[in-house]
């Protein structure tokens, strides 16, 4: 009968020892200095304990690493081989530790950022991303434009780390919503509309639009701004005649340019050079504001997301001080 089962497995008994990395650092210092006393001074310990630690390493490895000379330490062939690998191992460890720390600091890794259409046009968002990229150029960034409801679901599904949204979030469970700024809203009218007065008019009272046909972004895509506009119109004494709804704000401007009706949009969207559209400041509607919020998962924010949030808060505070 074969006695193979009675033969001990060599690899079981030759398992590599668990080496304290500190011993490898001590070994490298002695190898580079070629002298125990000089190595001890370099690493800040006494010579006797260092000598003892080198012997511990040799005992754990089962080899002699140094020839002890009257005036120094000389590497054996085994010691010379270990020096090459020990340097590489510790260099890789240092690189890994540095990378892990950079990821925690938000300087490495990945980040997924979402924003609504109107938020993507606001210079504040551009400034936040620009500042983040300057501070963390090694972070891979992906962006997604969608409506508020879809962005919130993407946050909850961990497909996004942060999102710039306009609308207040009804069910904010598990999320933190921070208001970055509020901006005025303006009226957008066709260029040949009588209320534009041939381009002479620069502002208009909200109640002056009471008889106009309104074009609105569909409420499910932007419930906050939709409800804010309707409420402001009611406060101004009328209920707007909404004759057309579009999926995006840019689509509403196209319809305004075509003469279909008028609309109300965040002031930052006036940067869209829509031919055939005139933008007028609104008066008599002090509560008609468009907020910009930053949303993220509560208690589950990556280093990169934390860094971008810090940039956003810094820029937001700067705007408020002006």
UniProtKB/TrEMBL annotation:
Residues 19-76 form the HTH lysR-type domain. SUPFAM superfamilies: Periplasmic binding protein-like II, Winged helix' DNA-binding domain. Pfam families: HTH_1, LysR_substrate. PROSITE patterns: HTH_LYSR. It comes from the Bacteria. GO terms for cellular component: protein-DNA complex. InterPro entries: BudR_PBP2, LysR_HTH_N, LysR_subst-bd, WH-like_DNA-bd_sf, WH_DNA-bd_sf. Keywords: DNA-binding, Transcription, Transcription regulation. GO terms for molecular function: DNA binding; DNA-binding transcription factor activity. Belongs to the LysR transcriptional regulatory family. This is LysR family transcription regulator protein. It comes from Herbaspirillum seropedicae (strain SmR1).
């Amino acid at each position: 009968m074969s006695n193979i089962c009675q033969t001990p497995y060599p690899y079981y008994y030759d398992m590599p020892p668990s080496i304290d990395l500190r011993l490898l650092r001590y070994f490298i210092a002695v190898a580079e200095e070629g002298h125990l006393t000089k190595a001890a001074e370099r690493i800040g310990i006494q010579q006797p304990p260092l000598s003892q630690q080198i012997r511990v390493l040799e005992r754990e490895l089962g080899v002699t690493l140094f020839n002890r000379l009257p005036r120094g330490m000389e590497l054996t062939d085994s010691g010379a081989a270990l020096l090459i690998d020990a340097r590489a191992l510790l260099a890789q460890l240092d690189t890994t530790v540095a990378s892990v720390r950079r990821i925690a600091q938000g300087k490495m890794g990945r980040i997924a950022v979402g924003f609504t259409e109107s938020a993507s046009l606001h210079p504040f968002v551009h400034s936040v991303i620009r500042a983040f990229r300057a501070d963390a150029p090694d972070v891979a960034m992906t962006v997604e434009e969608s409506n508020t409801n879809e962005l919130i679901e993407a946050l909850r599904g961990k497909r996004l780390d942060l999102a710039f949204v306009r609308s207040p979030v009804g069910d904010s469970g598990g999320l933190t919503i921070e208001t970055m700024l509020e901006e005025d809203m303006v009226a957008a009218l066709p260029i040949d509309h009588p209320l534009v007065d041939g381009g002479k008019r620069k502002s208009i009272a909200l109640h002056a639009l009471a008889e106009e046909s309104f074009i609105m972004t569909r409420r499910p895509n932007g419930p906050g701004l939709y409800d804010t506009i309707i409420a402001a119109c009611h406060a101004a004494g009328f209920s707007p005649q909404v004759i057309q709804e579009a999926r995006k704000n840019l689509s509403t401007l196209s319809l305004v340019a075509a003469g279909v009706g008028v609309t109300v949009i965040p002031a930052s969207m006036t940067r869209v050079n829509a031919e055939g559209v005139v933008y007028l400041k609104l008066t008599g509607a002090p509560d008609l504001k468009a907020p910009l919020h930053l949303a993220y998962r509560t208690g589950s924010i990556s280093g990169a997301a934390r860094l971008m949030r810090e940039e956003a808060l810094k820029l937001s505070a700067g705007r408020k001080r002006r």
